[in-house]
From TrEMBL:
Signal sequence range: 1-36
Native source organism of the sequence: Plectus sambesii
The protein's name: Uncharacterized protein
Keywords: Signal
Length: 429
């Protein structure tokens, strides 16, 4: 029984009048209306809907906070107390939805995008994907971060408006930018030890370096976008998409389009890297995605790719809004169909292989890693022994490189010739 109902019962027992019962009915209706206006999840970048719907009015599935992994209906599932149902409910990150205009874009447009720590730094929780909000301008205990965390400005903020801009904001948009991103939640708690300006500490804390990836990347891949039609999965560092593994078939390639971080137009296959990179006239880039749990299964090897230099931001003036920076970009190329691989067998085909296409499919969640390498020329010229002349690509089990694990390859003469990865990310499928 709610507090409204309890109070009304006491009043009714005292007066026993028709007016009392009418008052009780009004109070119950008001309580129901207020409850209906409260979303099931505590933040608008979260949803109880397993389709990823933004601003969902649903109540979601019941869960037990004491049970790990009790929420398996979407990315980064968490069991939270809902003030709409007065019970624990499963909430997930808003991700795509089933419409052409993705719900992720809707959230970003209104300023409710999930705030992100900069340069691969970890957020809250063991995975580093949960958000604890804070304030840089308040000394209140509720605005401070837990021990070992620092209140940090999120990386996905909109550009600054014109310096003299007094145009009133148009509801429901909270800012003047075309995409408001995480405007309404500009700061969050990030793990202090990972706020180093590079990705090395996060890779080490994840257990990837030095055991699996001998040398951690400095930079971070902002996101990988799987799928070119709805539903689309935008995958960021640390994300747990294992409950959606069935989406990640071979046809669901990491060549999708998204503007959720950069705020600039992107085309299919563009991946943006944070950090500073030099771009030589003949430089080429190479992208490796593999299963770090088995350390054998290579999902993707795309090589000899073109890079595009970063463009610095143009500051706001009295006449024009800020033009946001365009990060360094690598253009991945289209992939053809691939044969179905055998799980746990260190074989490799020349194209992308989706984890959901493995036979048999792995029943547990696996950690996956994406790395970007840079060489001064095409692989055939810069590392002649690296390329299998029979099929024209890296073949870990071929005569050119008989490697038992991806780590063994990265430690080999051929692997070392690629140099340290310049950027990377990791996620669960």
């Amino acid at each position: 029984m709610s507090s409204f109902q309890s109070s009304s019962s006491l009043i009714c027992s005292a007066t026993a009048s028709m007016n009392c019962y009418i008052l009780a009915l009004i109070l119950v209706v008001q309580a129901s209306v207020i409850s209906a206006q409260v979303l099931a999840c505590p933040n608008k970048w979260m949803t109880p809907d397993t389709t990823g719907t933004y601003n969902s009015t649903g109540v979601g599935d019941a869960c037990q906070s004491s049970m790990l992994n009790s929420c398996r209906g979407g990315p980064n599932g968490v069991c939270v107390y809902s003030f709409r149902t007065y019970s624990y409910r499963c909430c997930y990150d808003v991700w795509s939805g089933l419409t052409a205009a993705t719900d992720l874009t809707k959230a970003s447009d209104e300023g409710w995008a999930k705030p992100l720590c900069p340069y691969g730094a970890k957020g809250f929780g063991s995975s580093g994907t949960q958000v604890v909000l804070c304030s840089l301008n308040s000394t209140a205990a509720s605005a401070r971060c837990p021990a070992d965390y620092t209140c940090t400005r999120s990386v996905n903020q909109p550009p600054a408006p014109k310096l003299n801009d007094v145009t009133p904001l148009v509801s429901p948009k909270p800012c003047l930018a075309a995409t408001c991103q995480a405007y309404l939640t500009p700061t969050l708690c990030c793990l202090t030890s990972t706020l180093s300006g590079n990705n090395q500490k996060s890779f080490a804390l994840q257990g990837l370096t030095p055991n699996i990836v001998p040398v951690a990347p400095n930079g971070v891949i902002h996101e990988l976008v799987f799928g070119t039609a709805a539903p689309i999965a935008v995958v960021r560092q640390g994300d747990d998409w294992s409950s959606q593994k069935s989406l990640f078939l071979t046809a669901y390639t990491p060549l999708g389009t998204s503007t959720t971080v950069t705020g600039v137009a992107a085309t299919a296959g563009d991946i943006y890297l944070s950090g500073t990179y030099k771009l030589g006239a003949t430089d080429k880039f190479h992208v490796l995605i593999f299963d770090a749990t088995t350390n054998k299964d290579i999902l993707f090897w795309n090589y000899d790719l073109a890079g595009t230099a970063a463009v610095a931001a143009t500051p706001a003036t009295t006449a024009a809004a800020e033009i946001p920076a365009t990060p360094f970009k690598v253009k991945m190329t289209a992939t053809a169909s691939s044969v179905t691989p055998v799980a746990g067998v260190s074989t490799y085909t020349a194209t992308y292989v989706g984890p959901a296409s493995f036979t048999p499919q792995y029943p547990t969640k696996h950690l996956h890693v994406a790395l970007v390498f840079q060489t001064s020329n095409t692989l055939a010229l810069s590392i002649p022994t690296f390329v299998n002349t029979a099929i024209g690509t890296l073949a870990p089990t071929s005569v050119k490189g008989n490697f038992t694990t991806v780590t063994a390859f990265l430690k080999s003469t051929e692997g070392k010739a690629l140099g340290a990865p310049i950027a990377g990310t990791y996620f669960y499928l």
